[in-house]
C-alpha cells in the first residue's frame, strides 16, 4: 500500500545553533479519514530560548506549510498534566478534540 503521508521537519536557528524543532506528518488520507490532517509528533525549544517566540514561529511556519498542502486540520496528543504545553497549544489556536486516545500494553 502506498504511504500517503508527508513528513515535515522544522528547525529554528539562532547564531548557527538549533534552538527549537518541530516534527509533524501530514496524512493525506488515512484509515477512517478522508480529509487530510496533520499530526504534530514532537515540538521542543531550548529552555534558554523559552518565551522568546521560538515555538510560536515554528507553529506559524508549520501552519503556512500545511496550508500550501491544503491540510486544514492539525492534531496532537498532550498529557493532561503538561499544563505548560496545553497553554502553549491553546495560545496557538488548537482546541480540545472530540476524539479520545486509547492505549493497551501488549
Polypeptide structure, described:
By secondary structure, the protein is α+β, with helices and mostly antiparallel strands. The protein has one domain: Gcn5-related N-acetyltransferase (GNAT) (Aminopeptidase, 3-Layer(aba) Sandwich), CATH 3.40.630.30. Helix content is 23%, strand content 30%. It has 2 helices and 4 strands, in the order βββαβα. The protein has helices spanning 54-68, 83-91; strands at residues 5-14, 17-27, 37-45, 74-75. A 4-stranded mixed sheet has the order 1-2-3-4, covered by helices on one side. A hairpin with a 2-residue loop joins strand 1 and strand 2 (17-27). The protein is globular and about 45 Å long. The chain starts with a strand and ends in a 15-residue tail after the last helix. The relative contact order is 0.17. The mean pLDDT is 91.
Structure characteristics:
106 residues, alpha+beta, Aminopeptidase, 4-stranded mixed sheet, 4 strands, 30% strand, globular
CATH architectural label:
3-Layer(aba) Sandwich
Strand order of the largest sheet: 1-2-3-4
Low-confidence stretches: none
Largest beta sheet, briefly? 4 strands, mixed
Helical stretch tally:
2
Strands, helices and their partners?
Blueprint: E1 5-14, E2 17-27, E3 37-45, H1 54-68, E4 74-75, H2 83-91
Parallel strand pairs: 3-4
Antiparallel strand pairs: 1-2, 2-3
